Amino acid sequence: VPISSWQAFPLPSLPRKQPTVLVACGPAQNGAIGLVCARHLRVFDYEPTIFYPKRSPDPLYRDFTTQCEKMDIPFLSYLPTEVQLINDAYNAVVDAVLGAEGEAGEGREPCAAILATLKHVRIPIVSLDVPSGWDAEAGGSGGISPDVLVSLSAPKLCAQRFLGRLHFVAGRFLPYDVQKKFELNPPEYPGTECVVAL
After folding, report:
1. Paired strand residues for 94
2. Does residue 186 contact residue 158 with C-beta atoms inside 8 Å?
3. pLDDT (tens digit, 9 = 90+) per residue, 31-44?
4. In sequence order, what are the beta bridge partners of 100?
5. In what residue span(s) does the YjeF N-terminal domain sit (predicted)?
6. How many CA atoms does the CB half-sphere of 18 hold within 13 Å?
7. pTM, to two decimals
8. Could you tell me which of 176, 94, 165, 181 has the C-alpha nearest to residue 132?
9. Higher-confidence position of 172 and 88
10. More confidently predicted of 86 and 143
11. Residue 29 to residue 60: CA distance in whole angstroms
């Protein structure tokens, strides 16, 4: 799927005849966001598959997992190390492995193995908030190189080093007091859109 055809997130222009998306989830907050993303992709008639090897004991995250299971979203028991299998089976990967909490988990399993595999896929990668392996402020050279970045609430400093094709921000419902406290200047969201391209 050519990246230039992606106009929004979720990916409404991803052809319905090839709607398969792998959602790679880590054990912390960004992994939970990945579970929510998978659920939304399913609602929009995509075919997400989740790889969530280290499930969080947090009750909210368990609820997200249950919701995905009840929507018949399959969970992989392992991530193929043969990258070509991933390239052939899916049209895109959602990176919800580490996010802004990346420093704590980057070198530990299973995150390190997931990142090692994702660095070699040829299909488009969509990173949620902060690409896995990047520092939220400084960016990173050891992490993955996503094609699409979806910043949550507001772009993090590392987004200045993002060299992919598309950058979206999803922060329409950010409370005004938070916007004022952090001196955020959110973009205009057209119509009822919850994301906007930067």
Report:
1. 23, 126
2. no
3. 999 999 999 999 88
4. none
5. 1-186
6. 12
7. 0.85
8. 94
9. 88
10. 86
11. 10
Helix residue spans in the chain (DSSP H):
29-43, 59-70, 83-89, 102-105, 111-118, 176-181
Spatial distance between the Cα atoms of 123 and 147, rounded to a whole number of angstroms: 9
| Total number of residues shown for the chain | 198
DSSP conformation class of 135? B
Strands 75-76 and 20-25, by their bridges, are unpaired
Other CB atoms within a 10 A radius of the CB of residue 116 amount to 14
Q: Which two tokens stand for residue 95?
A: 């990176």
Distance CA 20, CA 123 (A): 11
Alpha-carbon distance of 129 to 33, in angstroms, equals 10
Structure tokens at 13: 């222009």
- Measured at the CA of 95, the angle between CA 36 and CA 124, to 5 degrees, comes to 115
Q: Which domains are assigned to the chain?
A: 16-197 (3.40.50.10260)
Token pair for residue 197? 């391209």
